[in-house]
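We read letters as residues; the fold follows as tokens. Both lines appear below.
***
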Amino acid sequence: MAMGTAAMTTSLDGFHATATAQRADELARALFDAVNDDDHARIDAILNEATLKRPADRPHAWHGKRGQHSEHLGYILAEMQYLQRAHPGARW
């Protein structure tokens, strides 16, 4: 998808009240496509055109021993809690 002044033709043409709203929608869809394609150069170009800054990268926080778990462990935490409740006093 080329960035620039050329307008995209979409099924929502004529839906937006202003040209600015139309362009914001186009940028949002272009950003979504760039993220899905993992195209960092295109993401940066879209954010720049939208006058936005990319958030700073943050290292992954490892706080599991403190009981702070990210969402990706939710399913296993639920299963472990179920086992402990279903079999109180069980040892493994």
Summary: Residues 10 and 26 are 9 Å apart (CA to CA). The mean pLDDT is 79. The two ends are 55 Å apart (CA to CA).
